[in-house]
Amino acid sequence: MPFWDLLKLSLETFRTHRMRSFLTALGIIIGVMTVISIISLIQGMNLEVERQISTLGTNTIYIQKFAWGTGRIDFDEIGRRPDLTMEDAEAIARLKSVERVAPQRSRNVNRITYRGEKVTSVGLLGATPAVAATGNYSVEIGRFISSDDSLRKRSVCLIGGYIVDNLFPNENPIGKRLDLEGKRFTIIGVLERKGSFLGQSQDNIVITPLSTFDKYFPLPRSRRERIFNTLTIQVLPRRGAQIDVAIDQIRELLRRRHGLGYDKSDDFAINTQDTLREIYQNITRVAFLVMIAVAGISLLVGGIGIMNIMLVAVAERTREIGLRKALGATNRDVLWQFLLESVLLAAVGGAIGVALGLGIAKIAELAANLKAAAPFWTVMLGFGFSAGVGIFFGIYPASRAAKLNPIEALRYE
């Protein structure tokens, strides 16, 4: 039989048994809907995290006392490590593979005030002017800190957009003086907004010259407190230089400077953007696998439902099959008819599931402030899954119908 005749027969069967067809496709709808909504949200999260990571500075290398990660931190061992020094930073800056080096220290300030208004939990960063390149900072208005500010230990600062919104909503902040825990700083610039990173605002920040920071906020005596307050060195490799080569050179240099033998572990840590990506992937991998497993079970249940209903259809239409064979239909015609019905049933369920999955992802994006992205391959994945389920679970009922003996089929009651 021509394909279009087979298609008409399949559609007529669905029209005749609308409710049964819908209930049969429901498992496919739920499975595909779950897969599409999960993948859309995960893809959106991946794009957003990648965007946030890029705001930290392209290819920037972070040299610190501790390594980034999600495991247990041995504070006693890290506390015994030597502090990184300005001399370390100057030595790194002389490496051929290094473009810029920005030593810096940071801490959390409980609050900053201006004329009675306040902002709490502010990130305070003391750095050299090179941090503009290594940390991907740009100035919206005013100017960045200069080498002269650092040399003279001036009490000047740049502020982020969050501080502007809360302390200077209707006035120009340049030239105004902030109170940082009793220390007065003059604002010389406003940073361009970076948005949030893993749920934390990057615009609730104050940047001062490193020399000024050291003057007002000396290192604490406690080893554990010093871990997060000692010098961090940001390094930007030269353009065209491989980041792995720069890391190897930095590691070799610091090991020599710290007098480490070949059998001793590093007493410092080198972190990169790839470290953040790996942490994010480790956090989301288990959740992703669990949700995909749930969606797979839904598709399996839907496929079993399709096979069951197609076996029922074969039993109900045994006389029809016998009559068609008696009139000249071949085994292949019967096979294709029932297989096409199975695939169409699954494909329609897949189409509905794709539409519902994209809708749920969009609703989640609007309601929960999540990012959703649905590249074309996700839509094709939904259709591919559903069609594959229809073929796999439709082959047995279709082959059973094709093998029926026409004489016995005509006698079937």
Briefly characterize the structure.
The chain is α+β, with helices and mostly antiparallel strands and 413 residues long. The chain has 15 helices and twelve strands.
Please indicate the percent range of residues in DSSP E strands (runs of 2 or more).
Answer: 15-25%
Compressed to H and E, one letter per element, the order equals HHEHHEEHEHEHEEEEEHHEHEHHHHH
Radius of gyration: 33 Å
Structural class: alpha+beta
Spans of at least 5 consecutive residues whose pLDDT stays below 50 are none
Helicity range: 55-70%
Distance between the termini: 26 Å
Q: Give the strand order, joined by hyphens, for the main sheet.
A: 2-3-10-5-7-6
Mean pLDDT: 82
Number of strands: 12
What's the tally of helices? Answer: 15
What's the main sheet like? 6 strands, mixed, barrel
Shape label: elongated
How many domains? The number is 2
How would you explain this protein's 3D organization?
This protein is of the alpha+beta class and 413 residues long. It folds into two domains: 3-51 and 278-411, no CATH class; 61-271, no CATH class. A hairpin with a 2-residue loop joins strand 6 and strand 7. The mean pLDDT is 82. The chain has 15 helices and twelve strands. It is elongated. The protein starts with a helix and ends with a helix.
Question: Can you tag this structure with a few keywords?
Answer:
413 residues, 2 domains, six-stranded mixed beta barrel, two-stranded antiparallel sheet, 56% helix
